[in-house]
Fold each of these.
Amino acid sequence: MNRFRVEPSGQNLVEFALVVVMLLLMVVGVCEFGRAWNLYQIMANAAREGARLASLPAGFTTSSAVTTRVQNYLQTGNVDTTKATVTIGGAGVDGGTGTQVSVTVTYPFHFLYVGPVIRMINPGATAGADITITAQSVMSNE
């Protein structure tokens, strides 16, 4: 009779093998979204710096100076500036006093480890950009 007795010692190992995959996916996912949030913060600060420069009175700055300021800030944050797009909107750099100027920075973000899961959820995502991160800052011209 003892010969057919089920030995429960391997049960813990099987349960751990099933749970560890989900646990690791969750931990790696948190790290990946942390990278995306860090990039968003860098982009938001870069857009704010550009909007500060763009909101100066007419004649003190140019659109190319604003774009250069934003790209320099992104480069300081170790962001690939060749992929970033900087757009100056609103009244623009030469707008009159009291008008608004906006600086928008967009960047295609690629998840390193959870990218295949993101592409399963979002079939429209490409291999080069799982999501597009956008940060915008609006300020009044002085």
Note: The chain is about 45% helix and 20% strand.
Amino acid sequence: MEKRDKILYAALELFATEGYNAVSTNKIAKYANVSEGLIFRHYKNKQGLLDAILEQAFEKVTVLYAHILMEQDPKEILRKAIVLPFEVDESEYHFWKLQFKLKWELEISGREKMQPFIDKLEWAFQELGYQEAKNEAELLNHALEGIAGGIIKQGFETQEPLKSFLLKKYNV
């Protein structure tokens, strides 16, 4: 693994487990087994490091949701959205855990990056004749976010009943 990648991985893991504010660049350097100066050379400061992680997050979200955004069958859009949190590889949990932490710790929501997904859900609900398509889309998005958090904290099996419930609720 390249030193730059080691730094990013160490920062991601430490930020996800301990929180952004609780982790120093010195601690990241020790965890990555690199000099603190190397962090500053590559990322300028701790914020630069976080920005690099967030950029990766936005790229991952784009890839993760691409197949839903391209889908034209409204029922299939809902089905794919509901099963999506269950398809995330366990090796990615630190990454997603950090996204949840940042929402609360630094009030970084990434809402603008999620808007195309929410818009696609709204379109699907409109196509299926739901009276309050916008509210259904928001509700499903919030439910999926909660399920994703539950998976990260407690594992897939704890959230399976909710997946089944949603698939049945929306008849997909």
Note: The chain has one domain: 3-169.
